[in-house]
Amino acid sequence: MRQSQLFTKTQKEAPSDEEAKNAQLLIRAGYLHKEMAGVYQLLPLGLRVVEKIKQIVREEMNAIDSQEMLATAMQSKEVWERTDRWDDEKVEVWFKSELKAGGEIGFGWSHEEPLANMMKNHIASYKDLPKMIYQFQNKLRNELRAKSGIMRGREFLMKDAYSFADTEEQHEKMYADQQQAYKNVYDRVGIGEDTYMTFAAGGAFTQFSHEFQTVCEAGEDITYICKEKGIAINEEVLEEANLEELGVVRDELVETKTAEVGNIFNFGRHKAEDAGLFYKNSEGERTPVWMGSYGIGITRVMGVVVEKKADEKGLVWPESIAPFKVHLVALNTDDEEISDWAEGVYASLQKQGVEVLFDDRNARPGEKFAESDLLGIPYRVVVSKKGKEAGTFEVVTRATGEVRNLTEEELYADFS
Amino acid sequence: MRQSQLFTKTQKEAPSDEEAKNAQLLIRAGYLHKEMAGVYQLLPLGLRVVEKIKQIVREEMNAIDSQEMLATAMQSKEVWERTDRWDDEKVEVWFKSELKAGGEIGFGWSHEEPLANMMKNHIASYKDLPKMIYQFQNKLRNELRAKSGIMRGREFLMKDAYSFADTEEQHEKMYADQQQAYKNVYDRVGIGEDTYMTFAAGGAFTQFSHEFQTVCEAGEDITYICKEKGIAINEEVLEEANLEELGVVRDELVETKTAEVGNIFNFGRHKAEDAGLFYKNSEGERTPVWMGSYGIGITRVMGVVVEKKADEKGLVWPESIAPFKVHLVALNTDDEEISDWAEGVYASLQKQGVEVLFDDRNARPGEKFAESDLLGIPYRVVVSKKGKEAGTFEVVTRATGEVRNLTEEELYADFS
């Protein structure tokens, strides 16, 4: 894409009411527009990053036979009353409204109940199980505070998956498949090394639930981590008996600020029992379905990546989720020979299938480089008069600052 | 995809409270789940159709240099107060709610105001114009009645685009580009022949606005159409002076039931003036931007296609938006030779890049065919013992009922 055509502009300053580093940078770089606290429009560059993260998650979900669908924001009061989660005393984050036609509706802060309810039409017998479904759905949550940018939105994009099983064995297998899929996702988006599957309080049905926590200064959680053993524990289960069971002693654990980038719940059979999702087992008995639920905050993951990778110059994207792979920056564009050369390189890289943002604008080099650093695209390729004379391009790796001078041939080979 | 794995099942009956043919069929075929009146979950087959329609619209928008972004459902009261459209007396379809942190918010029934507001950060000078943006956004509308299935949802997916121009000439060009893009979209989704650009009331700034109306018995609108001249007129502008201007007489116009599948508005400079979107023109003067807005109801288009194409047996999809191109139906699957043969054909078609739903289930032929007709996939390929003996497949075109017997070689050639 040509930067001269891109409608967004970078900004010197973030809005004065924006406290979070992730949102400040993303707004300044033109990835986001702040609608209100905790609510951000995705501008073209931001949407590209979100779609990249979604595609990684989609591939990992499809690989474990999870089927994509899409539920609705509007939710029925009756469905949530059945499991006693309609009341604002029970769920604090509801947004609700009144139908003109009469009656109350809620806006989806979660989708466990509506999807369990929907599955009643599709699960009758053990022959219909196991099944797994997922969606990318906007969640709307009436958070009292929203000061962490896209790490805690009032409106945010989540991937939520749900598993439905006949036997405990099937159930455990899908739970384990999701755990592995989550690890793959964090590896692929570039935060795998610092992300820990964390033991948290399990509720009435299981000893533990599992959160995925990423080491992050801007995180809102505290996790106790033993890096050597790869064990992480939420404060709420930091008890002697649990530590013993997990094979770790208190002194090995380091109190660490973290951000929750995913969580998975083992509902056993209780959620289906409450929601009324029953099937006939192989003996013909009416039985509640084993259920699990698995969430990843897509926009939160984006925020965490920004917080962890950005430097004093701006954003730094891992290649896997960058809006473009290459930022082709043309200098001396008033020289027709240079500008023709740059056009040729742009065409060739695109032909090779490389995603390129082409800075074809007439501006000062210093301005262009500062903006390029702010945007955080992994590789900057500079086309200049000086380079033309030497027959090379300056290629700068954003994450490391490494500078290489490549010939045209070397350049294409490098990005092929 | 294997039908034995697909989690949705077809249903004999639609919910008793569902009046619309489109929703009845789509629910029975497992494309949709009804959350409440006017609110439908997209199940995997339904999501595939929606994604196909989106991709067609996306290609047509990108072709006219419109840039994709994604705004939010949550909207700020202040932004809508500025143009005097926050009041429920002014806009009847608002859903509103209260923030826990204090203050009211609205849920997006339209996005003109928030996007005009966002553009203030990106349009400063005539050099930043012209620009066009679009999004696929869920709209939430508090409709008093919602009896037309996905043709009038309380929650529905819309493509909305907005153009921003410096000069009237740029503005008219983008308006014309969008008109052409809309025609291309209706052609590609299979309703082009029956869709008319219709003259409707233009409001304070232009003589006419333009709706796209599709001839449809289930439509909620009445349009006056002269098929020969390709002219269509909304009742509200059915006046002698207008007819004269458009070169048609009243007797040539046939009163026709239609569904509105798109509408485009020419705001002139007034919307930007109200919203406070100004730029510096080439003379350095502060000037309101020329704006247009362009909407297509994605899920409504899907509903209209269903209403127009479906027959007594079920859904009938045009190839361009079908969830799969081929429904491969294996009979006699208890015969290992037949089932192996079917598996081979499934693998070969997929390898050829053909999208196939493979009915690999063990069920009676009559049941399979009835379900195949209900699903409406364009081509049914039957693998059977009888066919094996003759060395052929029965290929049925869903729309016409045409039956052909093709050899394996002919089959692959036909779908290549």
Polypeptide structure, described:
The structure is a homodimer of 416-residue chains. In chain A, a hairpin with a 5-residue loop joins strand 20 (393-397) and strand 21 (403-406). Chain A is 31% helix and 29% strand. In chain A, the strands form five sheets. The first copy, chain A, has a five-stranded mixed barrel. A five-stranded mixed β-sheet of chain A has the order 18-17-19-20-21, sandwiched between helices. A three-stranded antiparallel β-sheet of chain A has the order 4-6-5. With 416 residues, chain A is of the alpha+beta class. Chain A has two domains: 21-309, BirA Bifunctional Protein, domain 2; 324-414, Rossmann fold (3-Layer(aba) Sandwich), CATH 3.40.50.800. Chain A has helices spanning 21-28, 44-63, 77-82, 112-119, 168-189, 240-246, 270-275, 298-309, 336-351, 365-375, 385-390, 408-414, and strands at 32-36, 39-42, 66-68, 74-76, 95-98, 104-107, 131-140, 155-165, 195-201, 208-215, 221-226, 231-234, 254-268, 278-280, 286-288, 290-297, 326-330, 356-359, 379-383, 393-397, 403-406. Chain A starts with 20 loop residues before the first helix and ends with a helix.
Which helices and strands, and how do they pair?
The structure is a homodimer of 416-residue chains.
Chain A (H helix, E strand, L loop, with lengths): L20 H8 L3 E5 L2 E4 L1 H20 L2 E3 L5 E3 H6 L12 E4 L5 E4 L4 H8 L11 E10 L14 E11 L2 H22 L5 E7 L6 E8 L5 E6 L4 E4 L5 H7 L7 E15 L1 H6 L2 E3 L5 E3 L1 E8 H12 L16 E5 L5 H16 L4 E4 L5 H11 L3 E5 L1 H6 L2 E5 L5 E4 L1 H7 L2
Parallel strand pairs in A: 3-7, 9-12, 17-18, 17-19
Antiparallel strand pairs in A: 1-2, 4-6, 5-6, 7-8, 8-16, 9-10, 10-13, 11-12, 11-13, 13-16, 14-15, 19-20, 20-21
Helix pairs in contact in A: 1-8, 2-5, 2-8
